[in-house]
Amino acid sequence: MSRSTVRHAIADYLTAGAITGVGTIFASPPKLSRTSDALVGAAPGAVSGAVVYIEITESFEIRVGLGGTGAGKKSVHHTVQCYVFFHSVQRRAEDAMDDHDDIIEGLLVRIRADRTHGTAGSEFPILQAGEGDPGIAVQTSLPKDAGGGAIDIWTSIKFDAEEFITA
Description:
It contains two helices and seven strands, in the order αβββαββββ. It has one domain (3-57, 80-158). Strands 1, 2, 3, 4, 5, 6 and 7 form a seven-stranded mixed sheet that branches. The protein is 21% helix and 40% strand. By secondary structure, it is α+β, with helices and mostly antiparallel strands. 30% of the residues are buried. It starts with a helix and ends with a strand.
């Protein structure tokens, strides 16, 4: 797999999970994203939603000598960042934070549900994502007044995705 293929596989897997409150998942940060992307597909009257942008911030390889001379494999580790832009028009920041936390928990449940992120059985599967050290790390900013009664919160969900390639 290439870095691009890994990003797209993870985006496809998360999208297929139909995570409540997540309007749009982009396989990379787009040139332009609108606040309305957070509410794509939401029920009429929904007051909170999120957009997810996936990025690979680092990759490194480790050669693994399996199968004798010339038949080695490389373990390729990708550090994946899922940037979550949460937007809400809840009246109280506390209620917006509760909505936000529900969406983040939905994303975490989906990440944990399949360590291969839907690639098992494919030619170039993700061996594991979000497993082992360092696991899954979540960092969230404080709610920010976005004007007009809206509240925005940014969160980063970080984990490693590992694959084995012939090298």
